[in-house]
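Please decode residue identities from the backbone states below.
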């Protein structure tokens, strides 16, 4: 699954090209794109040209509460953005046990490890080579359920290690961290969702 705005630099076109390259087990490969944006028309046309229209589901918008209930239905979260500084959706997906595939560009590459997904290298690589690397991971993941199970466990653990609570505990110790988190919770209205991450409140799936 992909969650985010449909903009050229979000890299969804790379996913469509990679999807077209996965010939083995192709009936098991389905991409769901949650989000909308000005690049949708181009992506629709590209999917048709590549012959993968029937393997891509487009969901223009999804309420946040529904999105949080949706992650567990998927096996892999894909985020091939070319220059996202943060990528909150990546950390959120990992907190629900989804391995993540991203590029070695921007913030997501600092969050994802080979234990909990795959960071595709782009340095000195052509676009075709990047697409081939994405397709190779799709094939590897589909052919190796044990790898995906291990990556899912690692993704959840990695996300937990990057929460506010975990970071503050590393800095100040458990006792002081609990006091600081309590003070923070009392001073700022926040939602603590089931993933263990703090959020400022409901937002649409295509705001990133």
């Amino acid at each position: 699954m992909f969650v985010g705005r449909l903009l050229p630099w979000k890299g969804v076109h790379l996913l469509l090209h990679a999807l077209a390259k996965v010939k083995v087990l192709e009936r098991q490969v389905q991409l769901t794109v949650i989000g909308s944006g000005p690049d949708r028309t181009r992506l629709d046309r590209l999917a048709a040209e590549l012959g993968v229209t029937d393997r891509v589901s487009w969901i223009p918008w999804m309420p946040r509460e529904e999105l949080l209930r949706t992650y567990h239905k998927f096996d892999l979260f894909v985020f091939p953005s070319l220059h996202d500084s943060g990528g909150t959706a990546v950390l959120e997906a990992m907190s629900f046990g989804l391995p993540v595939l991203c590029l070695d560009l921007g913030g997501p590459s600092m969050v994802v490890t080979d234990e909990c997904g795959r960071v595709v290298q782009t340095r000195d690589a052509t676009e075709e080579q990047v697409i081939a690397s994405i397709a190779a991971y799709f094939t590897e993941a589909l052919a190796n359920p044990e790898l995906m199970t291990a990556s899912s466990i690692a993704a959840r653990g990695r996300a937990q290690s990057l929460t506010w609570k975990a970071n503050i505990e590393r800095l100040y110790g458990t006792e002081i961290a609990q006091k600081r988190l309590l003070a923070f919770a009392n001073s700022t209205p926040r939602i603590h969702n089931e993933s263990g991450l703090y959020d400022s409140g409901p937002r649409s799936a295509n705001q990133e």
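Observation: Residues 190-204 have pLDDT under 50 and may be disordered.
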